[in-house]
Amino acid sequence: MLFNSLVFFVFLALCLALYALPIPWRLKKLELLVFSYLFYAAWNPPFVALLALSTVVDWTVAKRMAGAVGAARRALLLVSLSVNLGLLGYFKYGGFLLENFQLLLAGLGVDYRPPEWSIVLPVGISFYTFQTLSYTIDVYRGDMRPWSSFLDFALFVSFFPQLVAGPIVRAAHFLPQCLTPRRVTAVQLGWGGALLTLGLFEKVILADMLMAPVADRVFGLAEFAGFTSAWLGTLAFSAQIFFDFAGYSTCAIGIATMLGFAIPRNFRFPYAAVGFSDFWRRWHVSLSSWLRDYLYIPLGGNRKGRRRTLINLAITMLLGGLWHGAAWRFLVWGGLHGLYLVGERAVRRRWGDVWWNGGRARPIAAALGTYALVCLAWVFFRAADFGSAAQLSLAMLGAREGHWVLLRGTAGIVVAVTVGLLTVHWLMRERTLEELARLAPRWVTVLALAAMWICLALAPGDDRAFIYFQF
Fold it and tell me: Could you say which of 324, 337, 403, 425 is catalytic?
């Protein structure tokens, strides 16, 4: 059930109508839980059992941790890790591991032909797995106590606005909200509806209608791309993936707001980042902070010397890349970002924050340089295979000749959208949408939202799934 579909709007209207009834808070939470499971079942009903399994296992494990110590406590955590990461590994990485095992045997001269791997990836499994794991890890560490209400916990794991593509919400942030009755108010409906409109506009108009066709054409014809077309196609994808994913997150935050819940921002205008540590404080914030708190810091973070810090960074970014997909090119994408972060640390150690010294031009130049290197990494994220990624990378570096593969008039659209995107991100670098809404005259806000809805109404009925659904 896509946010950008008529079926979802009927679903949401029915959910809000029932939610607004004067019924006890516990029944409202039960209603949200039922709607969340119906929302997930719309993708593939049998996979609801996996969601329920993760919920029951982690709820039981956390409860038993309350009275366990030492080895018993560690064994309970191992149960949670084994079940959740085992399911994730089987469904998401089983085919990848089998394929590479076959290649390894072939290299040793063994002709092994396994049966075809035809397991369907459950939508959102990477997101809700990390979400529910954070709860058991927090309880294990003593950062929070086991929650007393199973209904609250089940709603936390399955909350439909952000279930299938984030943001990855922490239990300590969501569960306390379940204690206080939430009500549908005009202010919440208005602001939530505005965010939903903005998110759909980003997804349907900017990502799908304007940028996706250009990116698809260039990456689909990588062998013919020259310097200009390779860069334009990659710029188009950099805009597409931002508008697609940030659009989903904005929709999720808006829908949660309508229901009276607050979920954290997932994007903070990342293409205005000055440096790569800044980029990861702005891009997919819920994942980067999860990897920091539950992987990088437990590995030792930056507490065990410079060499160990660099190793920890590399491991974190490689696994972050693998989280996105079961393919070597995602490891390369994560590895490139790891190299970027290592290089940035070397520059800081030698010269300090040089990009902020020397007036206004230097940070802008540093932000543009950061964006250019992020785009080079995006090639491996988007390309269908290593061959295509290599061809486009060489073309972007000017090391390979090619042909103009874009349709007439497309280049101007890509340049205009990219310049607009970077300008908005820079101007909003230290601001939020809430601040902008407070400062803007009401008539400007109404006019902008009306224009977005007109564009959405006139857009072709091609409902593309959100890119991050595949992760």
Answer: 324
